[in-house]
Please model this.
Amino acid sequence: MYEPLYKSLYRIRRVEEEVARIYPTDKLKSPVHLSIGQEAVAAAMCAPLDRHDIVFGTYRSHATYLAKGGDLKAMLAEMYGKGTGCTKGKGGSMHLIDIDAGVMGASAVVGTTIANAVGYAYSVKLKKQSTIVMSFFGDGASEEGVFAESLNFAVLKKLPIIFVCENNGYAIHTHQTKRQGLPDICGRARAAGLPAELIEDNDILTMHERATAAVNALREGTATGPAFFECKTYRWKEHVGPGEDFKLGFRSKSEAQPWIENDQVKRVAALVPAVARKQIEAAVEAEIQEAVAFAENSEFPDLSELTTDVFHTVSTPAAIQKAA
Amino acid sequence: METTLCIDQYTPHKSASSGAAVASPKPERTLSYVDAVREATDQEMDRDASVILFGLDVDDPKAIQGTTRGLVEKYGPERVFGTPLSEDAMTGVAIGAALAGLRPIHVHIRMDFLMLSMNQLVNVAAKSSYMYGGKVKVPLVVRSMIGKSWGQGAQHSQGLYSFFMHVPGLKVVAPTTPYDAKGCLIAAIRDDNPVMYVEHRILHFQKGPVPEKLYTVNPGKARITSPGDDVTLVGISYMQLECLRAQRYLDDVGVSAEVIDPIWLAPLDIDTIVESVRKTGRLVVVDNGWTSCGASAEIVAQVTERLQGVRDVRVQRLGFAPVTCPTSPPLEAEFYPDSRRIAAVCNDLVHGKSQNWYPDERPELKDLEFKGPF
Ligand SMILES: Cc1ncc(C[n+]2csc(CCOP(=O)(O)OP(=O)(O)O)c2C)c(N)n1
Ligand SMILES: [Mg+2]
Model:
């Protein structure tokens, strides 16, 4: 169990470090919201999911995308704006998607995908599929009306969805306590009728265990509705971009220090036998090198791509007639 | 060179209609757009204790590009505060506060996020005065920003002001220069009606003359920013700069463009534009948004309605490509009209057919490029 978890964690960390390293070259003409420090949440929560299960994310979704098995080449090429990117250079880093891996996309408008995930789960239930939907969002998103409205509907319809609030304590530079009169997100989920669990300290093993239990309960039918997790974590880097933001003065390096010392990548590394660890690391490094080269060597999209995809080609008038 | 473009807007010229704002005398001081917005807010908050300022991150270290810098220190956290991520409710809160006599300025770092505020803006703010028979007023300013470049993409780049132009009861302003940024914001704050105040992130970097005193640039007055005879070139928000650059390119081929900045989109000073087109017979409107049902469509329609049967007029609209804004740099470059394309379109319109002329880029007329991260 530790080895796949470590592979997932290490891969996310190293990809994002690589993104941060390349960023100053101006090759990634794209905003990047790194999740360095927060990898444990995506890695642990996605671990019990199958490939056909579905995740919805946010602009800070590199970790979710990778943890769910999203294609690294397509991700990096997207950030380079290349035609081989996962959205052909149209969406950029804030809208990563990999349908084959069950990554259903991400939004730059906070909170929007919470409801979209609920709608997906409604379809799953209607079609009596075994799919589980997982919705990732930040602590800030819980302040949007759509959060309360979505939770209520998910409970009302007993939908197979797991909500994961990645609480890194901040929305950009503003602490949770400056935005929430009662900073208790789990409490609000409970008030909507959800079983809600708070997991402290970015603790990957607890998250993994609890996520596995929740996923199994939905699969086995012992749970008949949504579940909610609030996972406390910490962002090491600035809100957007590759640097740090301690000099801005809204938070201190000493606040970050315990989180950095409690690095879950190191923690899980220590649980993996040295030989296996080396193998995992070598494989990830090779994959990253290959993906960076792929992104760099790929072509920009053809200019004709500008006007494609505005409407989905399947929905041509002819196709619509045929469907009817 | 950007400064030159802006200063040129204040060289004295004759206003086409008596209603148009006449150029102001050249002031001594140069400010950035950001500082002009900040100063207008500061001076109005100082003058009028009922002005309050709030929105996501107005009190954070980056202070909305600097436009709100120092204000929480000066006026305290009761009059200046960051909000939860709750655009819908906070817009309703702003309206309620306005009904009670405050003059809220509600700030959004992206215009795209206003989509969460639509119900309150369209169904309540815009309608209260009318549906309550004039018994209440909603003196509200909603500031929002349009992004461009650096892969800001689908949801961080939209110029959606035409949505608001559509609705009676809302005023809409999109100032281009630091001078107008200050004057329009003061006018908006003093207005007893809801005003949508639209800023473009690229314009934030512009510098230009701004008087220190309080002054207003009033609703419903356009400005002729560069006089000409052959074609009327209307540029909205950031596209005003591209039009002024296009006018320089057109000089090279002997085409004289009259450039107009509408400044206020609602109420719109159509008279100034109509008078110009009556002279030139040609109208190109360049918008910082899509053309379909957009501000450019409205301007062209109003001008044609006014001049049909009076003057033969040729018209052309330019705006975003009719697609979602892509992030890949070459696609994004194709998405936006730029000065050279505008110049080529004007030249063709003047000559009535394709001239196959596309100017070589002049380095001093190059667009500013926004550098990430944002
Ligand atoms: C509706 C909306 N309002 C405001 C923003 C601007 N914004 C972008 S990220 C962000 C903070 C979100 O915080 P949180 O949900 O905690 O996610 P985190 O960035 O911490 O992962 C804000 C306010 C936005 N993108 N969408
Ligand atoms: Mg957060």
Q: What stands out?
A: Residues A 60, 108-110, 138-141, 168, 170-172, 239; B 56, 85, 87, 109, 113, 116 surround thiamine diphosphate (ligand 1) (CB under 6 Å). Chain A touches chain B through 49 residues (CB under 8 Å).
